[in-house]
């Protein structure tokens, strides 16, 4: 169809390194999530330089993407350097209209459908593995998702396809344009979307451009920010950046990194550059909060649990007569007065609320930005509504009041499970999220998060910062391994993975899976009796999945009902193990283990197969320990099966694993179009890279 030399016919201007990297990650994500059917509707074209996917767009024109084997949540990724070949008529005319398969560019699927099987047998449809919206059904038979057609485990996902006699009717070779810049590729792929979806696609394109701007800015400012961190915290992170206060320096380094699976994670929509310079974690700024006095009767929450330094309206410069009738309420500077005013009007509190003129309370942003650390009380963080969205246009950083109750209930549930399991309880620390205030609106809410005492001599490192470059040379994880494990990176990873899987398999045995991803989990390192000690610090307890029947089987029906009674979000409680296993796979396995392994391999720290074997072995051992511990526990008739067997079937030995489709659900489609009940728990499927004998590229990612 296309000669090997035709790509050079026309080429757009070259992208710089930042643009090339972002373009590759965006295209990887669109392929992984099968957005607009870019995989399921594609046909394979084999060329001298490798394999390409050819897709017909809604305007009838064809585009080709170069692909190569991958393995981290998808069989393929875009071959580097990323580019898109756009077909044109000879002479540059518009592409011919095509009428489906008759045009010779049929919709036969050459890959397993990205949606995989319909949901797990015990998962409700809301689990989200449905066919992609706006994707025409593929013609012809489709192989089961668990077995990629034409390949055993490890075979190239494109091997043996695209070259069969008669597969491609003879047509005059079209002229092609090689698109290599972000704008050019996004403009052409706009025609992959249905017309009704192009408004959201255009918004995602803006998100991409904002991310590119952020990448260039971050590269420019990072050396100066690191100099400030060294000046403020010391030049040896593993020795000097101690305690919860020191974790803010790690948060700052993590803010310069990309999200493991969401390509535009650096974009903060609706915030100006000046607003971000003054309030975003990568700049490590300090600022003061605004405060409003709300009528006490309008505010829900246990005010007796507020910190002793909590101000009165009078202390904020407001009339002293308000102290008895009103409560001081913190407001992020970026949310006052606009977001505050919206919330007050919606709750009819405008005339009864007083906004203090002067800001009060010095804080610094954490990695999440909307959560700030109190400078004079490092163990206290305040989570505040913020007028932005990250990780998708619909991932707004407001605080719905129900999530505050969910966080409190999630913490109490996790504490109750750990109290029954001393084998792992000593390795887990929980942030206290039982103190909060709200006035019945997502713009009028605050969480007062308290960290456990006794961490001043510990390194408290969010998982998101582990692979950040350290001041000087090496990575943060290297400095930790040097300090605690005499430079043995594998010893540190071994200890971490052993604890990670012991904790989360134990929780699964009670029917619980936590949304404890890289931002919500910190590695806590210190020494005890002359030996390194590893613990996990968990926060943001509001988004678990819980199987009530399994919990009731483990703790009794009455206790389970008590523990689950405080949840506000009905989606948290499931009717089977499937949704719980989905969170275990996508969070604990993919983000907390697999993402680290693939990146460490790409950085040359260790062979990928060695790292993945370590993950599989530690997960298998944790499941084996679970079997031994639960064998003697008697289950009631009709209770769920043994938790270890479920984890083996749905995670460890499954042919395919769920994969978050965050761009699809969070940016490209409305919930009505995607069918996502929860945009953060909407899945496609991908290969299980933990299976023994699976052939993966040695490069990592």
Task: Briefly characterize the structure.
The protein is of the alpha+beta class. Helices cover 33% and strands 17% of the residues.
Topology diagram in text:
Blueprint: E1 10-11, H1 17-32, E2 43-47, E3 50-56, E4 62-69, E5 76-78, E6 84-88, E7 175-179, H2 182-189, H3 198-233, H4 237-240, H5 243-254, H6 273-279, E8 287-295, E9 326-331, H7 338-346, E10 354-355, E11 360-365, E12 371-374, E13 380-383, H8 401-419, H9 422-425, E14 428-430, E15 432-441, E16 444-450, E17 459-462, H10 476-485, H11 489-509, E18 512-513, E19 521-528, E20 531-538, E21 545-546, H12 548-555, H13 557-564, H14 578-602, H15 608-630, H16 643-652, E22 656-660, H17 662-668, H18 671-674, E23 683-687
Parallel strand pairs: 1-7, 14-20
Antiparallel strand pairs: 2-3, 3-4, 4-5, 4-6, 6-7, 8-9, 8-10, 8-11, 11-12, 12-13, 13-16, 15-16, 17-19, 18-21, 19-20, 22-23
Helix pairs in contact: 1-3, 10-11, 11-14, 11-15, 12-13, 14-15, 14-16, 15-16
Report on the structure:
With 701 residues, the protein is an alpha+beta fold. It has 3 domains: 6-89 and 109-193, no CATH class; 208-401, no CATH class; 460-653, Transferase(Phosphotransferase), domain 1. Helices cover 33% and strands 17% of the residues. The protein is built from 18 helices and 23 strands. The strands form 5 sheets. Strands 8, 9, 10, 11, 12, 13, 15 and 16 form an 8-stranded antiparallel β-sheet that branches. A hairpin with a 6-residue loop joins β4 and β5 (76-78). α10 crosses α11 (489-509), α11 (489-509) packs parallel to α15 (608-630) and α15 packs antiparallel against α16. The longest helix is centred in the N-terminal third of the chain and has 36 residues, at 198-233. It starts with 9 loop residues before the first strand and ends in a 14-residue tail after the last strand.
């Amino acid at each position: 169809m296309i000669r090997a030399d035709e790509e050079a016919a026309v080429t757009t201007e070259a992208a710089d390194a930042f643009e090339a990297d972002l373009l590759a990650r965006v295209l990887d994500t669109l392929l992984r999530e099968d957005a607009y059917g870019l995989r399921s509707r594609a046909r394979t074209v084999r060329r001298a330089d490798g394999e390409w996917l050819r897709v017909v767009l809604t305007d009838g024109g064809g585009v080709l993407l170069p692909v190569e084997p991958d393995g981290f949540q998808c069989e393929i990724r875009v071959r580097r350097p990323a580019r898109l070949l756009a077909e044109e008529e000879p002479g540059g005319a518009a592409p011919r209209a095509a009428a489906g398969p008759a045009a010779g560019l049929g919709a036969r699927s050459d890959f397993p459908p990205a949606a995989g099987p319909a949901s797990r047998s015990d998962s409700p449809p809301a689990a989200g593995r449905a066919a992609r919206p706006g994707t025409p059904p593929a013609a012809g038979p489709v192989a089961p998702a668990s077995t990629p057609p034409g390949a055993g485990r490890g075979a190239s996902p494109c091997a043996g396809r695209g070259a069969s006699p008669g597969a491609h009717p003879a047509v005059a070779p079209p002229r092609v344009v090689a698109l290599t810049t972000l704008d050019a590729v996004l403009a052409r792929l706009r025609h992959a979307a249905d017309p009704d979806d192009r408004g959201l696609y255009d918004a995602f394109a803006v998100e991409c451009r904002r991310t590119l701007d952020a990448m260039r800015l971050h590269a420019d400012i990072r050396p100066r920010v690191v100099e400030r961190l060294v000046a403020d915290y010391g030049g040896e992170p593993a020795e000097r950046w101690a305690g919860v206060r020191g974790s803010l320096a790690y948060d700052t380094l993590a803010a310069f990194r990309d999200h493991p699976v969401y390509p535009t994670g650096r974009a903060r929509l609706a915030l100006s550059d000046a607003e971000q310079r003054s309030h975003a974690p990568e700049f490590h700024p300090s600022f003061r909060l605004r405060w409003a006095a709300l009528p006490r009767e309008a505010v829900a929450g246990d005010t007796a649990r507020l910190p002793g330094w909590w101000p009165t309206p009078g202390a904020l410069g407001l009339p002293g007569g308000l102290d008895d009738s009103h409560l001081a309420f913190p407001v992020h500077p970026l949310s006052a007065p606009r977001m505050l005013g919206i919330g007050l009007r919606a709750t009819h509190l405008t005339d009864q609320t007083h906004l203090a003129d002067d800001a009060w309370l010095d804080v610094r942003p954490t990695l999440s930005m909307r959560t700030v650390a109190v400078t004079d009380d490092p163990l206290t963080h305040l989570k505040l509504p913020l007028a932005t969205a990250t990780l998708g246009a619909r991932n707004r950083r407001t605080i719905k009041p129900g999530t505050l109750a969910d966080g409190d209930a999630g913490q109490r549930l996790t504490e109750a499970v750990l109290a029954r399991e001393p084998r792992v309880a000593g390795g887990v620390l929980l942030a206290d999220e039982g103190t909060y205030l709200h006035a019945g609106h997502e713009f009028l809410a605050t969480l007062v998060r308290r960290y456990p005492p006794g961490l001043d001599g510990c390194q408290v490192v969010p998982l998101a910062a582990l692979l950040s470059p350290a001041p000087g040379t090496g990575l943060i994880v290297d400095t930790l391994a040097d300090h605690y494990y005499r430079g043995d990176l594998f010893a540190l990873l071994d200890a971490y993975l052993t604890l990670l899987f012991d904790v989360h398999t134990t929780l699964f045995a009670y029917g619980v899976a936590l949304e404890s991803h890289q931002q919500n989990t910190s590695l806590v390192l210190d020494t005890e009796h002359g030996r390194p000690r590893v613990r996990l610090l968990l926060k943001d307890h509001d988004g678990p999945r819980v199987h009530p029947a399994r919990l009731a089987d483990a703790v009794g029906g009455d206790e389970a009902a008590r523990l689950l009674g405080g949840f506000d979000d009905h989606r948290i409680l499931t009717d089977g193990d499937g949704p719980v296993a989905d969170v275990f796979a996508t969070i604990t396995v993919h983000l907390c283990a697999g993402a680290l392994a693939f990146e460490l391999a790409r950085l040359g720290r260790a062979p990928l197969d060695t790292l993945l074997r370590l993950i599989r072995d530690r997960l298998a051992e944790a499941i084996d320990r679970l079997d031994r511990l639960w064998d003697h526990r008697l289950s009631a008739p009709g209770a769920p099966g043994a938790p270890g067997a479920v984890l083996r079937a749905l995670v460890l030995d499954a042919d395919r694993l769920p994969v978050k489709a965050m761009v699809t659900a969070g940016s490209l489609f409305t919930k009505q179009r995607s069918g996502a009940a929860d945009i953060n728990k909407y899945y496609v499927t991908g290969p299980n890279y933990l299976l023994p004998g699976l052939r993966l590229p040695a490069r990592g990612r």
